Structure prediction request, 180 residues.
Amino acid sequence: MEADRDALARYLDGDERAFEELVIRYEAKVRHVAFGVLRDRELAEDVAQETFLTAYRKAGSYRGEGSVRSWLFRIAVRRALDELRRRGRRAEVPLPESQTAPGELAQPHKGLEAAWDLDRALDALVPEHRAALILKEVEGLTYQEIADSLAWPLGTVATRIHRARLELKAALQETTHAVS
Prediction:
């Protein structure tokens, strides 16, 4: 988006408020992408803040290749994946305090159970596959935008999204068979 490039250029020329425009425009999306990778709201919030702090400090490193949105998503996904590696674990979704696992509910609501199954299936994905899938299916990026965002070859993006869909389908089918 040309407005993003303009805002970044104005920031680099000394207009601090121009960077605020980018934060306002993309804060929720960056947090959402980070959550998609991490599956932890608090960590996603931290990663979103770190993303904008990094972008603020390193705005001069933006080379104009791809969109500013893709550049911000690249920072967010890298930070999220680094966080997972640092913690040496896959992301886990804790049960909300007011709920138990679907099998333990007296009469689970079908929508709630389906959402829970989807969360568990997403958790089972390799973080890189989950990142690519979130950017494609949730954020609506094109394969090229994802390649730009993650600095992956286009073929890698296509392969990881394909594998993520297969893994997600298998995990959802396994959950369905376990409940039946």
The CA atoms of residues 11 and 166 lie 42 Å apart. The radius of gyration is 18 Å.
